[in-house]
Amino acid sequence: MNEEYDVIVLGTGLTECILSGIMSVKGLKVLHMDRNSYYGGESASITPLEDLYKRFNIPGNPPDSMGKGRDWNVDLVPKFLMANGQLVRMLLITQVTRYLDFKVVEGSFVYKGGKIYKVPSTETEALASSLMGLFEKRRFKKFLSFVANFDENDPKTMEGVDPKATAMRDIYQKFNLGQEVMDFTGHSLALYRTDDYLDQPCIHAINRIKLYSESLSRYGKSPYLYPLYGLGELPQGFARLSAIFGGTYMLNKPIEEIVMENGKVVGVKSEGEVAKCKQLICDPSYFMDRTKKVGQVIRAICILNHPIANTGDVNSCQIIIPQNQVNRKHDIYVCMISFAHNVAVKGKYIAIASTTVETKDPEKEIKPALDLLEPFDQKFVSISDLYEPTDWGTESQVFISRSYDATTHFETTCDDIKDIYRRMTGSDFDFAEMERKKQDIFGETE
Predict the structure, then answer these.
(1) What pLDDT is attached to residue 1?
(2) CB 320, CB 328: distance < 8 Å
(3) CA-to-CA distance for 306 and 110, rounded, in angstroms?
(4) What are phi and psi of 58, to 5 degrees?
(5) How far is it, in rounded angstroms, from Cα 137 to Cα 126?
(6) Does the pLDDT of residue 197 top 50, yes or no?
(7) Which fold has domain 119-219?
(8) Is the confidence at residue 291, as pLDDT, over 70?
(9) pLDDT in tens, 31-44
(10) CATH of span 4-42+232-292+387-442
């Protein structure tokens, strides 16, 4: 322990493990510690099932109908990976994919008027969808074609739109699209959580819709991927990457003090010893007095013995309930996975409903989602505080990650990783540079 490191990382959430891997690949000396005995932190997958019952203070053991506890891996924070998104790119470049197997999520649905519908994301699906009337379908088809062809470097594709000055609201008006089409486009394709995006430059929403379409075209059923054995496999994969490049890991390490001198981090004290460092990465729980609470997320983990109704009996899916459909400011999400992903025993499904808390009765806020899932064998409800750093690390060299939000994909997590990387190194995260560093050490064949 009494050594000097370039970077010490506290916490084994996905954000911390990816940054640990990246810094190790860059050739820095990394020490990674966690007070817990397991990987994943807030984003862990809990196994066996008995541990989940204990975590949520549910008395007794799981019933026999739940099978062996070891056959369960239950995510605390439900997320999918966009097939063409930033996390998949990080996984491919770092070759962490060698340690993981993925399945395509079988369906993406949107809630309208109390019912769920498949999200139309191609021109063909748009024409067949019962979400819209005939004339609206034609207008939506033209809109999708416009988005697919839009290139901010080619004025001919823009149809007079200024990507940085024209608001997204104006684009919808240009194609004469109604409120409900705006709802499912903004929330189920562009995956915005609120309607704030409508008055922002349209290029952001256009790029997000393109990401959805490109991710969808990779595999066809939906734009989402999910790792076998649960999301807890992701931080472990990046931990292996860090170890290959010389990173040192210590689980079950109590953190007694983060040692500061003249306002700057110089080390971490654990079990009476101090490991010195130049920079520190940690999750909010390790440095609460340099964070602020910015909201709460409610999540309800529901164990079902049936697929969700009206989804075509798929083994996995996402359902988005746009906020306007239920008179809210934030969307409600449902992620469902099952025994097909080695996270539950045969015939069982895990559906997790989540949203950003807006009232003093959070469980009532997710009722529209829970109504879609009933009946359930068991339900585990958690309300988590969301934190973001108040110290950006410029002086202190302490870099604190953000809490995991209510979104059901990892794009915001990847944005946080790139933001911390920029503040630590003074330069933007470069996927190509990462690839070159891997080749320098492993060669082309690895």
Answers:
(1) 61
(2) no
(3) 20
(4) -95, 120
(5) 6
(6) yes
(7) Guanine Nucleotide Dissociation Inhibitor; domain 1 (1.10.405)
(8) yes
(9) 999 999 888 988 89
(10) 3.50.50.60
